[in-house]
Amino acid sequence: MRRSSAWYLAVFLVLGCGGGSEAGEAEMAETAEAMAEMADTGLACVVMGDVEGRASPLQELSFSYEGGEGLLCYGAPSARERVVMGELVPYGEVWRLGANEATALHLSAAATVGGVALEAGSYSLYAAPGETEWEFHVNSEYDRWGIPIDEAVRSTEVGSFTATPSATAGMVEMMTFEQVDGALRFSWENTQVDIPLGM
């Protein structure tokens, strides 16, 4: 079985940070087992450089869909009293949907994302936010730093789709993704957008 260097780094970080207690060792063993299962399906986050001290920590969302398992990997920035939508993240400009590495989507089986048919594999997601509509781009190149999003990057797009943003129930300080019924939901500041997910 081929495992990525990111898998080995993750296992090293998990196993290297134990406190030595029985409970801690059991938790580390469970985490290592879960990571091994993830690696067996080929789903693992790619980490470029040191993650220590990043202002926008690496986050992972594991999710299930009909016929498969998925993993979304993204850098999660915080608002930190800044105006996010329309200023920090300008409207109409293509954005990496997070910070640091490209936001990566790993799928163990075929799926549709926003109506775009995808084979099992790994992709990156970008978006051009707007006040009333977001345009998402699915890219075949995922193991890269998230910027610049230039013509070379855009040339490897495999599809795009639009989605309508809505207001969150309250302020979301740190950008997050979660799985909701039939979608992956992006939330940050006062905005949320659902990315439809299906077979």
Describe the structure in your own words.
The protein has helices spanning 5-16, 22-40, 151-154, and strands at 58-65, 68-75, 99-107, 111-113, 116-118, 121-128, 134-139, 157-163, 166-180, 183-198. With 199 residues, it is an alpha+beta fold. The strands form two sheets. Strands 1-2-3-6-7-8 form a six-stranded antiparallel beta sheet, with no helix packed on it.
Offer a quick outline of the entry.
This protein is of the alpha+beta class. It is built from three helices and ten strands, in the order H-H-E-E-E-E-E-E-E-H-E-E-E.
Give me the secondary-structure category. Answer: alpha+beta
Please, what is the average pLDDT?
Answer: 84
The tally of beta strands, per DSSP, is 10
Give the CA-based shape: globular
Strand content bin: 35-45%
Query: What is the ordering of alpha helices and beta strands?
Result: HHEEEEEEEHEEE
Distance between the termini: 27 Å
Share in helix: 10-25%
Structure annotation, total helices = 3
Strand order of the largest sheet: 1-2-3-6-7-8
Spans of at least 5 consecutive residues whose pLDDT stays below 50 are 1-21, 27-40
Largest sheet: 6 strands, antiparallel
Computed CA radius of gyration, to the nearest angstrom: 17 Å
